[in-house]
Amino acid sequence: MNKLRVLLTVALAAVAVSMVACCNKGNCKNNSAVSDSCPAQEVVVGAARTDVYVPQLKGKRIALLSNQTGIVGDKHTLDVMLEHGLDVTTIFSPEHGFRGTADAGEHVSSSVDEKTGIPIASLYDGKSKIPARETMDKFDVIVVDLQDVGLRFYTYYVTMINLMDAAVIYNKDVVVFDRPNPNIMTVDGPILDMKLKSGVGRLPIPTVYGMTMGELAQMANGEHWLDGGKTCRLTVVPCENYTRHTRYRLPVAPSPNLPNMLSIYLYPSMCYLEGTPVSLGRGTDWPFQVYGHPDMTGYDFSFTPRSRFGAKTPPCQDQLCHGVDLHAIDEEAAIAHGINLEYVIDAYNHMKMGDKFFTRFFDLLMGRADVKQMIMDGKSAAEIKATWAGDVERFKQQRRPYLIYKD
Fold this sequence. Notes:
- The chain is of the alpha/beta class.
- It folds into 2 domains: 2-16 and 31-253, Rossmann fold (3-Layer(aba) Sandwich); 261-376, no CATH class.
- The chain is built from 14 helices and 12 strands.
- The strands form 3 sheets. The chain has a 7-stranded mixed β-sheet with strand order 5-6-4-1-7-8-9, sandwiched between helices. It has a 3-stranded antiparallel β-sheet with strand order 10-12-11, with helices on one face.
- 50% of the residues are buried.
- The model is unreliable at 1-39 and 100-107 (pLDDT under 50).
């Protein structure tokens, strides 16, 4: 813990917290992955801070965990590292692959990066979550550079934690190039019941935990959440010009079905529909921004999911679905609601399937096994949210020592 405190102190000293009012107040309304409509002191991501990390990494063999989100300006982090003479011997890829083109949950095989010839070791190939010794022997340090969205069921942080476990086993260093969390302003949802630990829930944290990858890595280390309660040697390269109120608009979609900022803000509420028969818009222009089903009659809005990039076999494929259109709602309204179970409750009431409406996956996403019963018992979204209010407050206190960025 002493080393962790030193690293945290250094990180805090390095972070500038000024942002102009436009983006601090969330006044950017452009519904796209990129917005340049708000001139502000630019957020500098960890991967751009070569003056900080290049001297630390010189002379070491490096494994880079990244994907299409690992960019600095118009360059990939991999190219930036190679241009600075760093020895990247291995690339690790998470869900969706190194180029971000695979479907959700689709197994991705290991390969070779065509541009650099560096081997890509997939961490989402359906095999062991820990790389083989022959792979781990090829490097000294693991660098993590992924754009997360701050949800417990989003798998990028799970992959990072698994690599931290591997670092303990094989005595490797871990360096996290931190990036902003677009949902950092929110903490909401139940803390994961570790009996439901899975690939969509790895740590005892709320659904929306309001931390960056670097902060979460520090917390996993400090709270001894790695396998066996051990800790790895961890360094975080923090962002500059970033606060917990910054409305950071992602420069590239983090995964195929989160195409814009509204989808990212609605994701905490909409993803639970993955554990039901209802379509949440995969295979349309509005994934995570609409929901419906062929049997949900009585709605004016309808859509038909089709096979497409990022949704090869979407739920309700080629079927006319009736339901609700959310893709024009205000972003700030979506943020203010946090987790809003009204959508799940609405779909449940219209489907009239009883407990058959919910799959086992719903419990894994929710992180608790009792929420579906509350929905079946007719509890409102507000009543259900109140059951985890204590979890949220306890977690806010627990995470405090590991926070890098100011309010």
